[in-house]
Amino acid sequence: MNVIRRYAIYFAWIVSLVATSGSLYMSEILLWEPCRLCWYQRIFMYPLVLILGIAAYRNDRSVLRYGLPMAIIGGSISIYHYMVQKVPGMAEAAPCRVGIPCDSDYLDLYGWITIPLLALVAFILITVMLWTARTEVEEAVEEEASFGA
Length: 149
Fold this sequence. Notes:
The chain has helices at 2-6, 8-29, 36-58, 64-86, 115-148. With 149 residues, the protein is mainly alpha-helical. The chain has a single domain, classed as Bromodomain-like (Up-down Bundle). It is elongated and about 60 Å long. This is Disulfide bond formation protein DsbB.
């Protein structure tokens, strides 16, 4: 568990890198045009590649202050997008009025695995890894306080 805590920001960065690469592969290689909600999710995922990459390189735990909210907001958008795709009647409330409808599925494996679900899994993994890194920071502060006493 100590190894996971120590390298949690690296793991979060790898997840963001894989999610961004997958997103770019789907849109640029497979030519799947993203809908508006997909773009909103990308707005929160793409910067995490740079932010978490720099933080991992510098071992900068202060990334939690701005990385964690980005992952939580992006995950919330993913939940909403998944509901638009899977819950009848939610498509009318979606902001997709022009272009690709938000309830369309380019990828629908086993009737429940969709692109928004994959994005949600990535955001959840990033959130868990950043939260794990947070506990590493708290334990280090407690150890320093106990040595000073």
